Amino acid sequence: MKAAYIEQTGVPEVIQVGDLPTPVPSGQEVLVRIGAASVNPIDTYIRGGVIGMASQFPYIPGCDLAGTVEAVGPGVQRFKAGDRVWGSNQSLFGRQGTYAEFAAVDEAWLYPTPRGQSDESAAAGALVGITAQLGLFLHAGLAPGDWVYVNGGSGGVGSAVIQFAAAAGAHVIASAGSEFNREYCRSLGAEVVLDYRSGTIDDEIREAAAGNKGVDLWWETQREPDFDRIVGHLKRRGRIVLMAGRAARPEFPVGPFYVNDLRMFGFAMFNASPDEQRAAAERMNAEFELGRWAPRIGCRFALEETGAAHRLQEDNTLGGKRTLSGKIVILPSGS
C-alpha cells in the first residue's frame, strides 16, 4: 500500500511517501480502506518528536480516518466488509496511523458513518468533534441555558463546540478574527460573535452575558490563556475548559478563582476510554443526522503532499500565520 511515513522525527520534510506492507487484520482489528484522513496539531507534535510516541520506524502519522471496511479479524463483532466507518485515536500508543491507503484499526476506535456524510466530512470532524463532546459533556457538564464563551470559534475544535453547545440549548458567545469567520460562527448557532482583536471585547462579553451575571463556561482554544481575564468573566460556579497550551505558564488569580467556586478542566481526548469516546461519537452521529453537525474543511491534499499539509498546519498552529480556516484533509486515493 502507499503510505506517508517517517524514518525519524523532525521537520515536515522528513515525511516520505512510498510502499509499505498492507496490514492484515487480526483479533478485533478492522482493515479499513481509507477514503480520507485529516491533520491535527497533535499529528505534527508526534512527527516532530515533541510527543514521544513515534519510537518504531517506519512510523505512519495521522489520528483521524474515514473509509470502508475491507476485511475484519476473527474477533470483530460490530462491523463487516462493506461498512462505512470513521474514527480517531490512531498513531497513538503504538497504533498505526492513517496517512495510508489502508489501516488495521481495533473496532473499539471505529464508529458507523452516518448515511449522507462523506468520508472527508467524517475524517475532518473526528478528533475535533470528540474533543468538543468530551469537554462539554463528560468534563464540564454543559446544561441547557448555560452561557458559553468560545475564545476562537472558527477553528476545528471551536466550531465543533459552538455547534454542539447550541444544539444542547446553550447560549453561545464566540470570537473570531475576520468578518468571514464571524459570519461562519453565526451560521453555526452562536448568538453573539465578537472580534477578538477589538479593544472593547471584554466590555462586549460582559454586556452579552449581563442578564446571566456572567459566563457559565469559558472554552479556551488559545495556547496562552489569560486567567485574570477569564476568571473575571465567569459567574459563580463557572467552569473553564483547557485543551491547548503545553508550554504555557500563565499567572493565576487564586483568590478570585476559589472564592467564587470556580472549576477548571484540562483534558486530552486520547486519555478518554473507548466507551467514553464511543458515547461522544454516537452523539456526533445523531447530531449529523439532525443537520446540526457539519465539520469545516479548509483544504485538501493528496497523500504525496502530506509534508506540505503538515507544514501548513504547523505554520498556523505554532507560527500564527492565520492562513487556514477549517481542517486539512488528506486523500490517500488522490480523489
Tags for this model:
335 residues; alpha/beta; Quinone Oxidoreductase, Chain A, domain 1; Rossmann fold; 7-stranded mixed β-sheet; 6-stranded parallel β-sheet; 15 strands; 30% helix
Describe the fold and architecture.
- The protein is an alpha/beta fold and 335 residues long.
- The chain folds into two domains: 2-113 and 296-331, Quinone Oxidoreductase, Chain A, domain 1 (Alpha-Beta Complex); 132-269, NAD(P)-binding Rossmann-like Domain (Rossmann fold, 3-Layer(aba) Sandwich), CATH 3.40.50.720.
- It is 30% helix and 25% strand.
- The chain has helices at 41-48, 119-139, 156-167, 179-188, 201-208, 227-233, 254-259, 274-289, 306-317, and strands spanning 2-5, 16-19, 29-39, 64-72, 84-87, 102-106, 110-112, 147-151, 171-176, 192-195, 215-220, 234-242, 263-266, 297-302, 327-331.
- Strand 14, helix 9 and strand 15 form a beta-alpha-beta unit.
- Helix 2 crosses helix 3 and helix 2 crosses helix 8 (274-289).
- The longest helix has 21 residues, at 119-139.
- The protein starts with a strand and ends with a strand.
- 47% of the residues are buried.
Outline type: globular
Number of domains: 2
Q: Find the CATH topology of the largest domain.
A: Quinone Oxidoreductase, Chain A, domain 1
> In percent, how much strand structure appears in the residues?
25-35%
Poorly predicted residue ranges: none
Would you tell me the structural class of the helices and strands? alpha/beta
Tally of alpha and pi helices: 9
The CATH superfamily of the largest domain is known as Medium-chain alcohol dehydrogenases, catalytic domain
Rg computed from alpha carbons, rounded to a whole number of angstroms: 20 Å
Distance between the termini: 16 Å
Helix content: 25-40%
Task: Please outline the major beta sheet.
Answer: 7 strands, mixed
Tell me which CATH architecture of the largest domain applies here.
Alpha-Beta Complex
Extended strand count: 15
Mean pLDDT over all positions: 96
Helix and strand sequence: EEEHEEEEHEHEHEHEHEHEHEHE
Q: Briefly, what CATH class of the largest domain?
A: Alpha Beta
